[in-house]
Q: What sequence folds into this?
């Protein structure tokens, strides 16, 4: 910085201020991956609310940034995402998202037809099958658990569990979970049709009874108590889900319900998405693991779909009141897309058949089921 | 591997038993809520129209409206459909009218002349204050 | 976890994963208490915006949860409510609620008739009387101060002071404060009628003059300055209250006023309520202290009501411009319920009498008065 | 016990003196704001109707409206009521129309054909973009 | 001082070069987006009306509407003005109708009798619940 | 606190509880300054969204408060603003504001006419000229950088840089930045008229082409990449600005865009403003530095305006497509006021000339330019 520096050294100095020399090949490759994610999110509308923040976070992660992710040292504060990412690391954001999800969810169809809880349970077999596959192809048990949960089709739960069991796989797991959730309308129908007969697809289900406010409130309290007693490690997720639902169904806390449904969930979604994306560095993402995870994710979705359908068929063997097996696939959650798929497939077989509300039962049961599985894995490994 | 199978067996058992417990609990609770209408489990197959209509009527829908609606449904869908519930379209009371009313009550600004109050460009608060400023 | 475990030991293992064995008797008793709170909040509409979060927090506190309230240790992060409760522990949430309250409050009626400030002051005598009673029946002075403030009928202030002076009593104090605030329409009228004559109840007050924006802004600034000078320990509460009010009355920061009135206060209310509820464990709540606190709370409300009414009668002795003593009871705050009670009682004596706006004066004065008392206790004990 | 009484005495004195100071300050300040209308302190007892009406009129209400309103009030409430202020109902300008106007100005989407713009199911943004995408 | 000048020289060079790079990049990218209409760079000076009108017409505006609009513009502004784009006023679809629709779908409360649903005083939720409570 | 204290000592005790004796002369002088700020904000509408919180924070800073700004010690928590101010100290708030600014900004006019980026660059010369002036009159280089950035007319950037390079000057720099931004309609026109001829002011610019969604998305990504590569220290500001803009222009994340435009920016603005104000103690504000900073700020604005205009005239020498030099002044940012000034001055010369959209180009370019300058100073000094 002396006044006598020559022109050359000044240019050099200028060059050193830039970070062009810090660009690595893996960054450039990641830019292509990120462009694909942006394309899927913006033009294909694959869960854009989360994929866009994730992809933008990934863009920041694959640039030679300064003051964005560094740890604090001495008097110097940490980077912005050092602080925001604490919300993921301390496991605060996913339960807050669940608070909003609970405030947005109507458990009425499930309460009116509680048998469908079993369909939501059956779909979780996809999680365990994928867990097995993942251990076989070489992932550690903890990693396998975090990968398997992709089959639960529940974004916040996947992020919650991955952060706990295998934080180094957070990015590919989140990307797989949200991408496949968006692909549900393509992944599920072939499996559903292969496993059902024309007659089964035409089954009409009797209309659901009305559910009163008191029953919904009791349900929220009961799920909280039963799940926490049986799988205490799921406390944070189930507790917040049901708090949001209780606020919603109480009908006397409109202000708070709206806050959970909007302000809270929107702001946390921006922070959660970018925090996840910012872990998506080339080193962490561009390796065989990611490809394996993406592959296992498809398998997880397929098995979960199949198990839901087969469980519905099994229940029909024992029950007089037949269930249309097409609603079994909705047990993977991916609310409300999986339920819409059931409706569409049902109408393809019989245009007068309305399965949407029936499919919402296993659909929301799948959310509870996946939280239970996550709690089980945490109890097994992280305790 | 065997360990994994153990984990899977236990895990799937846990999930099934948790959700089955919830099913059981829901059914038991549901019984209490369904009891007042003992015929409701077989309603869609065989429930005669009049009792239902009476129920709906009890809920505030005038019987002659109900009759007209039932006739229209029968004409449109053909036989096999039973009207089980009649309700006016759901007019959810959103927060906005209520908030608007609150705003009115709070009445921070009062129009002091007969002219209309218009939003200004740029969203500034219009210069119509309660007091003389 | 060996493959050779027998069936029995596997079941045992499964059992050990659950937390059923951790359920204690006090938890089950608390469930009944919580059910009562839910009933009061949902069906009786006792301050549901706060009682529902408190009761749901209490439910979580009385279940054998995992990962919800534990402290961080080593690399393991703390539970969700370890972090959220910091907002109470660090005394952040109550002032933020006050920011919203300030943005929602119109001090116009108080400014138009500043004499009513004395009524708001008189009602605070209930706080001191209860403090005395509490010390007599064995509470420590700090505890007694935190209990007495219930008579101020100001939720956030009660939580603020209880956290500072007697954190172990936070839950019963908050529950008492919010429950009795909801009971104001039942607790106050008998006292009001006993202490006033028919003629007094029929006094009509002259209509309030208009208050200009400038006067309201000066008022906000003046209250900030005077209260902080005289009772500096009330700075956080009064500062935020008046910041919110200044934003509101400036009429040029609509965006910020709305944010304080809605987003901020709603989200903080969810967190504050559940954080308070989560301290409500059986050990902390099911003991003689709680019963004593609930009893003292009623007394506090009663004395505060009486003192407000009596002060109004006293002022009438010296003043030509008579005050209807029914508005004195509004000095306990519990905005705006206490003011509505004054209105209703007034119209019972004379249907043409409109006391609502007059009662809003002592009503909002009571908020300031209670914050002053809280500051006084803090200065005396916590300094 | 004696200590407690000391605390209580001091404390109540503090509260009373703080709020009494505020009262004093408010009164002093209020004097400045009331000064322009010297007759306002005794207005409700004896203020004759015409000046008030004139005041209201000055504030923009047409006199014949005022006369009609006063007549209606007298008829409804009987004697003893004086109309002190007349104002149009408070039309608080909420943020929404302004925000809507801002949205229009920002104009991210422009309808390129004559057909109506409808919200889509599921709340997706309709596919009517400003550019050619 | 000299050091400061060094910092200033370098700094201003940095700012200029960063924004100039963005300019260059923008121009290159912009070329791709402008290519489909090769005549667009000189459009405002000399573009004949008919092709433009055709473009607008392709975008959904009926030709006779276009003719009328062009006539009106020519009459109002005089010669020298060319209509380059015609669009209906931007009807931005705000969130509210969509949210309202969502609310309707969620339908937490259903009006069970013919009477109107009104907000209650104090903004409480009206006592019209879906179930029998 | 014994019962035997005499009347006199009780009064003394009461007096000691108050903080009247802690009022200093500098506090009283600051009250006058604060009253002036309130007047400017409320009645003159000088950026009230920020000046009111700043002024109220300053009021709290100049009262003998307790428990509002103190550091935590032992078990005692810190004051409310000890915690809230961490958002400034850790450099979290300014980037969050930029997230909202990005969601509110339309870069369309800039993309349609990218030449105007040079105008936004030229206006930054005001920053460097002021930096030079500040070093000459005795400020340290770091301080001079933080002062110079006032000429960038960008509040959050000024606060961000001041916190990093010269935290003790945070208050006067923020006050100067926001005050002069509000004064743009008075400061700029004389300079603009002095430097342009009547003919130049009458130049009409050809209307801007339409910009498609894809182009806007590419622009957001490209600015992120180019700026971070060239000036990595600007990562946090530019990254958040462009994240917000990407969310906005994607058109598929309406919920998140609204959250960034409203909830997030409003709440953070309240906290940021008061946090800045609370550093405005008499000692920090009432000294020669503040006067110098206020003086240098005017100079910075003037030079920035002039440079923008002159750069437009320079570009006209080389270009066939003439630019109206009146839009050069908009390069100082102060969005959207500087652009409106260009429009007004243009119509004064030729009522049929519409410069507003053309001026929006340099206007938003100025935001990017100032963030680049801030990054450059950080790289030079704080790295
Ligand atoms: Na699931
Ligand atoms: Na009170
Ligand atoms: Na700038």
A:
């Amino acid at each position: 910085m002396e006044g006598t520096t020559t022109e050359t050294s000044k240019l050099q100095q200028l060059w050193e201020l830039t970070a062009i020399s810090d660009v690595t090949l893996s960054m450039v490759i990641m830019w292509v991956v990120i462009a694909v994610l942006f394309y899927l999110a913006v033009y294909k509308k694959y869960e854009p609310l989360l994929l866009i923040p994730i992809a933008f976070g990934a863009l920041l992660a694959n640039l030679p940034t300064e003051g964005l992710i560094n740890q604090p040292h001495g008097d110097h504060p940490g980077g912005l995402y050092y602080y925001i990412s604490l919300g993921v690391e301390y496991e605060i954001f996913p339960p807050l998202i669940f608070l909003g999800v609970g405030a947005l969810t109507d458990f009425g169809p499930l309460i009116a037809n509680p048998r469908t809880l079993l369909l939501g349970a059956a779909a979780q077999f996809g999680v365990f099958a994928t867990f097995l596959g993942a251990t076989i192809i070489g992932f550690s048990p903890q990693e396998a658990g975090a990968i398997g949960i992709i089959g639960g089709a529940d974004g916040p739960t996947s992020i919650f569990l991955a952060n706990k069991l295998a934080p180094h796989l957070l990015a590919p797991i989140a990307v797989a979970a949200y991408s496949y959730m968006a692909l549900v309308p393509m992944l599920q129908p072939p499996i559903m049709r292969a496993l059902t007969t024309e007659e089964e697809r035409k089954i009409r289900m009797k209309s659901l009874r009305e559910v009163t406010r008191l029953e919904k409130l009791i349900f929220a309290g009961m799920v909280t108590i039963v799940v926490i007693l049986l799988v205490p490690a799921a406390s944070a997720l189930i507790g917040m889900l049901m708090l949001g639902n209780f606020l919603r169904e109480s009908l006397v806390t409109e202000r708070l319900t709206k806050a959970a449904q909007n302000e809270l969930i929107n702001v946390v979604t921006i922070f959660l998405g970018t925090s996840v994306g910012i872990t998506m560095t080339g080193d962490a993402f561009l390796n065989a693991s990611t490809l394996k995870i993406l592959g296992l994710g498809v398998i997880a979705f397929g098995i979960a779909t199949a198990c839901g359908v087969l469980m519905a068929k099994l229940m029909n063997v024992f029950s007089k009141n037949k269930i249309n097996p097409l609603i079994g696939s909705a047990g993977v959650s991916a609310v409300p897309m999986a339920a819409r798929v059931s409706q569409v497939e049902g109408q393809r077989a019989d245009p007068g058949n309305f399965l949407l509300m029936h499919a919402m039962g296993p659909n929301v049961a799948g959310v509870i089921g996946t939280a239970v599985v996550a709690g089980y894995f945490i109890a097994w490994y992280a305790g | 591997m065997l360990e994994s199978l153990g984990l899977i067996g236990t895990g799937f058992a846990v999930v099934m038993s948790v959700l089955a417990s919830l099913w059981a609990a829901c059914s038991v609770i549901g019984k209490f809520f369904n009891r007042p209408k003992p015929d409701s489990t077989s309603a869609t197959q065989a429930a005669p129209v009049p009792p239902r209509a009476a129920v709906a009527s009890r809920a505030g829908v005038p019987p002659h409206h109900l009759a007209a609606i039932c006739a229209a449904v029968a004409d449109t869908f053909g036989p096999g459909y039973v009207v089980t519930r009649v309700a006016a379209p759901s007019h959810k009371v959103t927060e906005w009218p209520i908030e608007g009313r609150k705003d009115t009550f709070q009445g921070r600004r009062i129009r002091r002349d007969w002219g209309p109050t218009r939003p200004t460009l740029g969203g500034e608060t219009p210069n119509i204050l309660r007091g003389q400023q």
Q: What stands out?
A: Residues 1-5 of chain A have pLDDT under 50 and may be disordered. Chain A has one domain: 25-65+79-381. Residues A 152-154, 332-333, 366-367, 369-370 surround sodium ion (ligand 1) (CB under 6 Å).
